[in-house]
Amino acid sequence: MFVSEKKVEIRYAETDQMGVVYHANYLVWMEIGRTQLVADMGFNYAGLEEKGYLSPVLDLSIQYKKAMRYGQIATVRTWIESHTKLKTTYGYEILHEDGSVAATATSLHTLVRKDNFRPYPLSKVDPEWDAKYLELAVIK
C-alpha cells in the first residue's frame, strides 16, 4: 500500500482554550495530506483546476482517538482507499510523534467541471492519473 506522509507543526492558533487542537483543523491537515499524496505520485492538483476541474468532498468521516496539543508535530498519513469511475475515497491517519493515533478518517470526493459542477471521470481528464489511482487503491 502506497502511503504518503506529511509532518505538520501544530500552531497555537489551531488550539482551543483548553490547549487542544480544535477539531476542524484535522480537516485542513487532511487536505494537506491529499495534496502531498498527489505530489508524491507525480501529479499536481492545481493543474486540474487550471484545466477547469474541481474535486469537492461528498462525504467525510473522522474518528478522534487522542488529543493533540500546541507545539507537537502531527504526521498525516494519506492513501487511496478506493477509486471508481466517478468517486475516490482517501484514507487518513493522523499520528503523534510517538506513533500513537490521534485520529483516523476517510473522505469521499468526485471530480466536477467548474463551469457546470457535473461529475466528470478522471480517466477522461488525465488517464495516467486515473490509472495510478486504480493501481494504488487499497480496495479494488
Task: Provide keyphrases for this structure.
5-stranded antiparallel beta sheet, alpha+beta, elongated, fatty acyl-CoA hydrolase activity, YbgC/YbaW, 4 helices, 4-hydroxybenzoyl-CoA_TE, 140 residues, two-stranded antiparallel ribbon, Thiol Ester Dehydrase, Chain A, HotDog_dom_sf, hydrolase
Tell me what you see in this structure:
- The chain has 140 residues and is of the alpha+beta class.
- It has one domain (4-136): Roll (Thiol Ester Dehydrase, Chain A), CATH 3.10.129.
- Helices cover 26% and strands 34% of the residues.
- The protein is built from four helices and seven strands.
- The strands form two sheets. Strands 1-4-5-6-3 form a five-stranded antiparallel beta sheet.
- The model has no long low-confidence stretch (mean pLDDT 96).
Q: How does the SSE layout of this entry go?
A:
Blueprint lengths: L3 E6 L15 H16 L4 H6 L2 E2 L2 E8 L8 E11 L3 E9 L5 E10 L1 E2 L8 H4 L1 H10 L4
Antiparallel strand pairs: 1-4, 2-7, 3-6, 4-5, 5-6
TL;DR?
By secondary structure, the protein is α+β, with helices and mostly antiparallel strands. It is built from 4 helices and 7 strands; from the N terminus they run E-H-H-E-E-E-E-E-E-H-H.
The chain-level mean pLDDT equals 96
This entry's quaternary arrangement is single chain
Uncertain runs:
none
Largest beta-sheet characterization? 5 strands, antiparallel
CATH architecture annotation name: Roll
- What count of structural domains? 1
Distance between termini? 12 Å
Strand order of the largest sheet: 1-4-5-6-3
Structural class: alpha+beta
Percentage of residues in helical conformation: 25-40%
Q: Shape, please?
A: elongated
Specify the CATH homologous superfamily.
Answer: Hotdog Thioesterase
